[in-house]
Amino acid sequence: MLTTNYRDVPELQKYIDLVENEGKNGVKKCCKWQKKLIKFVKKCFENENLTIDTEQLKKYMGLQKYFDFELFEWEQFVFTLHCCVFREDGLPRFPDLLIFVARGAGKNGYLAFEDFAMISPYSNLQQYDVDICATAEEQARTSFDDIYNVLEKHRKKLIKFFRWTKSEIQCRKTRSKIKYRTNNAKSKDGLRSGKVDFDEVHAYESYDNIKVFTTALGKKPHPRRTYITTNGDVNDGVLDDLIEKAKKILDGEIEDNGFLPFICMLDDPEEVHVEENWHKPNPSLQYLPNLLEETRKEYKEWLENRSSSSDFMTKRMNWRQGNGEVELTSWDNIMATKQEVEPPKAREIAVAGIDYTKINDFASAGVLTKRGEKVVWKQKTWVCLKSADLPRIKYPLHEAEEAGELEFVDAPEIAPELIAEWIGEQMGFYSIPMLALDDYRFALMKQALARYGFTYENKNIKLVRPSDKIKVEPIIDSGFRNHNIVYGDSSIMRWYTNNTKKVKSKKYGNYEYQKIEAKSRKTDGFFAFVAAMTQHELIPEQQGSADVLPLFTM
């Protein structure tokens, strides 16, 4: 049986009513993104010729009897939209689903039910294989093991319909299979998935493994993707892209292209101090008294020591919180460096900075200019292909290469002439009265820089000492807090910045910059920026309005 009216489908209307009546008559609060989601879904039904397969939905819902739980209203809502709503041409209207909820909401249980339904005898799809993917095997097995345990518990009845081992589950009628997968991309050739799940997306730093699975979709009818996750500590990774895309869809800025974004989080971090707001990141909390009590306990611990209990905000409230004792600045402040900019005027005054720590690893250089209170930084990175650290680095370096911000050097070391030549090219755009770099690396660069007129004798070289960096730290900190530091759309600079921490200097008492992790989290671009910032007073602020920012070309 088919219907076009979502109001006739309890699995949809019940949750719509909960959101539209939030805060009234005992109905728990929900976040602004849920309110926007309901408006988005209703608009889709009003403007498109969509059908809901209610007969199929009823059969699927009947499978709940095999599980130790019944789906909450929000789970029934997303399941119906993802699995039982179709376009006029018969294809799924929402083939891609993102579930972004707090820890304990039951996302893995939901995924187990959804996958069980998709391969069950009630499905009309044959050989509709489901691959559950995660960055670690233990996580990839979570929903798989939930289904395995259901089959074991109801073995006498379900053995007629399924066969299963601890690595594969198959429906006898549809011949559809469920397997769990991890990040060993070499084992994924020849996949013919009908549906791909990505569990705990926050752990994915790049799209490399995701692409392997998603490019296999389309060989079977009705391809689907399900992303489930809480928040996490990987900045500028896959999750940030998905969240940004989701918010733009719900704000009406871009077309959804079949993407259904279910986002639950605090509207503002200060809301954490009112218990009623805890239902915003976790729509299941009202039904889970033990989880509510545990959340109260963790909240008190977080109040006592926010740095050591930062998981409370990140996981329970779905609001990313770094460790305030080690992070350079908040991720929101780092993202605020992504500001639109305009072309520079000819021969503007700028200062240059270089970080050239290891000749067989990474090196960075950049130029710094101003617009009012804002400082604008453009960088270039060189990476030695002989670097022993490359296998450890998860950041997608080739994306920075495509953006023109990085150059791979296929040689035993990075020649100083490469960096000096790039500085020389910038002199065609800017007047550069000063170049700053660490004094203990000046000897390596001295001869190459001299060819472009940068010498200690000409007084246009600043040999930066640790005390110089410490002095400029409060200025950089203020720049981040007031969103006056501009990188443009430079993902690699955001990565460099996020890899840097501040620690108290034992010698000077103030903060100094250090790497968070020495091998896999590089900081070269940020340290080149710091070097240039030690000379920022040489750049006049009156070069332009604060509303007009320069766009640098490589």
From TrEMBL:
Pfam families named in the record: TerL_ATPase, TerL_nuclease
Stretches assigned to the Terminase large subunit-like ATPase domain: 74-247
Residue span, Terminase large subunit-like endonuclease domain: 253-535
Coiled-coil ranges (or none): none
PANTHER family, per database record: PROTEIN YMFN, PTHR41287
Designated name of the protein: Terminase
Organism of origin: Eisenbergiella tayi
